[in-house]
Description:
By secondary structure, the chain is an alpha/beta fold. The chain folds into 2 domains: 7-336, Glycoside hydrolase, family 3, N-terminal domain (TIM Barrel, Alpha-Beta Barrel); 387-427 and 438-444, no CATH class. Helix content is 38%, strand content 10%. It is built from 13 helices and 14 strands. The chain has helices at residues 2-18, 30-40, 56-74, 102-112, 115-131, 159-175, 206-213, 215-222, 248-257, 280-290, 301-316, 322-336, 394-401; strands at residues 21-23, 44-47, 79-82, 84-86, 89-90, 135-136, 179-185, 201-202, 227-230, 234-235, 263-265, 295-297, 407-409, 416-418. Strands 11-9-7-6-3-2-1-12 form an 8-stranded parallel sheet.
Amino acid sequence: xxxxxxxxxxxxxxxxxxxxxxxxxxxxxxxxxxxxxxxxxxxxxxxxxxxxxxxxxxxxxxxxxxxxxxxxxxxxxxxxxxxxxxxxxxxxxxxxxxxxxxxxxxxxxxxxxxxxxxxxxxxxxxxxxxxxxxxxxxxxxxxxxxxxxxxxxxxxxxxxxxxxxxxxxxxxxxxxxxxxxxxxxxxxxxxxxxxxxxxxxxxxxxxxxxxxxxxxxxxxxxxxxxxxxxxxxxxxxxxxxxxxxxxxxxxxxxxxxxxxxxxxxxxxxxxxxxxxxxxxxxxxxxxxxxxxxxxxxxxxxxxxxxxxxxxxxxxxxxxxxxxxxxxxxxxxxxxxxxxxxxxxxxxxxxxxxxxxxxxxxxxxxxxxxxxxxxxxxxxxxxxxxxxxxxxxxxxxxxxxxxxxxxxxxxxxxxxxxxxxxxxxxxxxxxxxxxxxxxxxxxxx
Length: 444
């Protein structure tokens, strides 16, 4: 019909622009959220304390109505995210979903073992899942420092401890059926001011950023965390001109140099650190052009409208490259497919990579022993049809069996490097277009 054919091209830019947004709403009226879903077609919603209706049953009903209404409007499942870090940042004041602060979790891990953090993550993740949420904007991977504003929200001032504790907490959340979003990339541990009010400036050099701030993010990206949130801070070693949420260098560091395959989110664009730099519409378009897959605008309906209009104009005028829109759509679709995966298992019922039974009771853990069978014995038998560890493909195994030297792809520059041992990077790896003035993995 002529009417339907004419409406298709008008709806497509609206759908493309809406998919790039995650929004908030005032109050606890599900009709308001469903109306926003119909109007703006966002990827999902972020919930805060102001949306809590007062009881667990009321919250379940609220989330169920929003989920079903948004699914009908969007023809896809919505992301229903909450900021439930623990300690001072808990949006849902229910005992079953409560958590201690990250620093208290670290003290608990020292006394009872780091696997206790996996149970904490599982318990809170399961409670959030039963309420109706499908994403938790945690854990915090910022490495604490003297005078840092992040305070007790950080696991430790030691990046190794932060990476280990966050890995176990993430494994528990995944086992509980909830998606995790790590934050605040590339790390707010050395920031002394709160980005809710003003822009932090981090003067750390390249070596400090790589070895200290980025270590937890490298660990969690390698373990398959589905989403990472960038922060409103100026990192002079990465990009001396632009804050992380609108900097292509920061997002390239995350996606290309760290090899992150999940969803890249901005922090809330209504925060004081960045809201006054550009109009909201331009901020949203710049964030997506820089490489973010989702833009968060969490409160004001007027700001949400500005962001949507800015994104819509950028889509129509090709200010955002079609390839960038396609990448964002693919990454969002990949995450939405995981929403129905439960208890840390994939569609075939097998444990996902990074999880293994603990004590024969069906628990899960992550860490150095997770993939290799532990420190005290060999790993599980290799299934038929799966290449041995150390071989990237059957072609490599075949070439080695024929007496030829196998080759491996460098994860930094993509070059094929001949070697008799597995390398993660070639010796001459200095990728073009990289902002690093030194090799990506500095030597010892």
